[in-house]
Structure formats: C-alpha cells, structure tokens
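request received
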Amino acid sequence: MATTFTLISSVSVGAGGAADITFSSIPSTYTDLVLCLTGRFSSGAGFSLISLNGSSANFSNRILEGNGSAASSFVNGSTNYAGALDGSGDTANTFSNTQYYIPNYAGSTNKSISFEAVMENNGTTAYIDAGALLWSNTAAITSIKLATHTAANYAQYSTAYLYGVKNA
Amino acid sequence: MPNPTRIEVNCSTGEVQEIELTAEEIQQREDNRIAFEAAKAEEATAAALKAEAKAGLLARLGITAEEAELLLA
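response:
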C-alpha cells in the first residue's frame, strides 16, 4: 500500500497540439511511477507509443483488448504499444484515459509497465486495452515519452500527469 | 508553415518547453502513418475475405450464423 502519492509534473496540450509529451529528469526518490494520460488525436485514429530514457528498443508486450463486440489477446507488432486513443472519427470533445503503472522504476532490474487504456466513443466500436510491457533494460528510468503513432498530434486539452508513489 | 512541436517537461526544474520537431522526426512520423494505413488496409482485406468465406460455408451447409453458433456452443 502506498504511503505517499505525489504529483511530480503535469502537462496540458495547447492550441497547436503536440507530437509527443516527454517527462525528463525524473527524480529517483520514489518507489513507483504512475502516469495518467487523458488524450485525443487531432486527426485519424491510432495509439500511443512509449519510450523510456529516449529508447523505443527492447520492448515486448502482451495486450488484452475489447472492441465493443469481441475480445482478443495478442502481441502488438509495435512493441512499445501504449494504448488506443480517441481520434477525429470518434465522438467529438471526448477523450480517452490511460493509466500506466511503473513499479521500481529506479531499480537495477528490467522494467515492467502495466496499463489500462479506455477509449470513449458513442458508437459500435471503442477499444479497451489492458497491457503488459517489458523493457529489457536495467537502467533506472529518468525520462518517459508518449508519442502518437502516426503524423497526428495529441489534440488541445490532452493532459498528462506524472505521479511518484512511495511504498515505505 | 511551422513544424509540429513536442512538449518536454523537466521534472527537476519544472521547466516546460515546446520544441519544434526535426526533419528526421517529421519524416519518421510520416513513415509511421503510411505503415499504419497499409496495415489497416491489409486487416480490412483479410476481414472481408474471412466474412466472404464464412458466408460461403454457411450457404453450403444450409444453416444461418445463429444456427452455427448453436452448434459451436
């Protein structure tokens, strides 16, 4: 059970949109990290990709996904897949929510990330992802980047909040 | 027209920067878009072929999709 849950930094995307959002120089003083993204693509549809310490290499994943009519379990070919997001074809002014939990981010073992991503859409198709990622790298995490998968931007009013969790 | 920008937050100082993407970053995003659309088109084609094969099989068996679900339940 966490003893403290502290906001480290936050971002709110402005009128120009943002191709990606990076939290850098993350302090090593917490036990775990929680990253909350409320996002929407400025055009089209797609998903987020996560990079750690500037690297998108050495990721593996297993995704459990529901799309409104069926559920499936698969490995996403984009190995640093980080959850589906609402796009311009989905209900207007509606944002997806994704929460990433990164335990022992400052330790010296490989890093795991679990996430839940929920699209909100008043339609027949909306995705819910439960994802497990493994970053096969023993370096302490000092930066996290979320990027859109295609040339679309995170739309205005998308937000990202990074929290530090101390377990003792 | 200005290049797209990315946002970087320094968690130690609190400084927030909006940084223009480099030409390489812009090209990578465009390459990603093309690959993504190609993959979606491939998925759609595969789904259509599967639906066609399923409809053909049901017709040969002379049963409906609901009756097929009963058999498989």
